[in-house]
Predict the structure.
Amino acid sequence: MVAERPAVVAAAIRAVLRAEELIAQDLRRAVGWSTAQFPGYGLDELTQAAARQPPCVDIRPLVPTVLERWPSLQSLGLVPAGAPVPDHALDLTLLSAELTATYTPTREGQTA
């Protein structure tokens, strides 16, 4: 999809970045939109839970962690035992470009 329709992927990234900003601006209101998806939990409980796990669109620092899971996939037989780690399987070029072009950090400790 990235190679075939980069503009669509970039637009989706921008939408998710905007959602992250809106969540940071008013977490309780953002959580309120999803309470129906979590029956049995109140708005206060869900807001507290969301505060402990804020959204993070910038997943670039997680790439090494994802690639380090390769041996686990091999041990489970989900990928061939001798297959090399797919170092170039995660292409975050568009994410990087959109973050550079449009993202204004809103969470404490983040930098542009």
Summary: The first helix runs from residue 6 to 25. The CA atoms of residues 75 and 81 lie 7 Å apart.
